[in-house]
């Protein structure tokens, strides 16, 4: 199926590795030009080269910087001639015990995982509406639906973003102009982020990391962790021309781990 993304411009945040990179790869394969961001310049440029090799017909621009800062956002936006697709993503805050978190810790988590996506949305959606096409996809977390005790910072900040997007996505001046806003909620995917969570969980439960990881896999009906490539494929589908009637939704991608009906 042609997803109608050829020639579109996408801004993909935190795309040097993990789920962000998986999304960028899928969009490039569909013919979209991409601007990718991350804090680590070396890893980012290596990813950019890999993306160019996937599809020499598209432009890939790498902008190193912290997307959670005004300067980082301005540089990323300046590199993108127009943003047709926005994939909001940021490294999640560290796991831990809420008793150890002060106000500064909370504000950093909220700034990176709630306010930064909102700033990027504010900078792009009106242009999308004027052109009659726009896709905003926020990578949040399965913990929004099924909170994980050691990820309190993430649970709180991402839930705030979820509530904001639910209202904004239903504005007729956006939805009625073919601009959609959705959230993609990853469960356990084989990334560095997951490894850190596994280490924390293993320590809390007095287990070796590998044993804890195996138990986690066994708790997932799919009996495995997800891959960045399959996550990226779902991202591309949600950003496609065919997905114009899907907005304000939280799409859970977790191998069946969440046992609820809704």
UniProtKB/TrEMBL annotation:
<dbReference type="InterPro" id="IPR050259">
    <property type="entry name" value="SDR"/>
</dbReference>
<dbReference type="InterPro" id="IPR036291">
    <property type="entry name" value="NAD(P)-bd_dom_sf"/>
</dbReference>
<protein>
    <submittedName>
        <fullName>3-oxoacyl-ACP reductase</fullName>
    </submittedName>
</protein>
<dbReference type="Pfam" id="PF13561">
    <property type="entry name" value="adh_short_C2"/>
</dbReference>
<dbReference type="InterPro" id="IPR002347">
    <property type="entry name" value="SDR_fam"/>
</dbReference>
<comment type="similarity">
    <text>Belongs to the short-chain dehydrogenases/reductases (SDR) family.</text>
</comment>
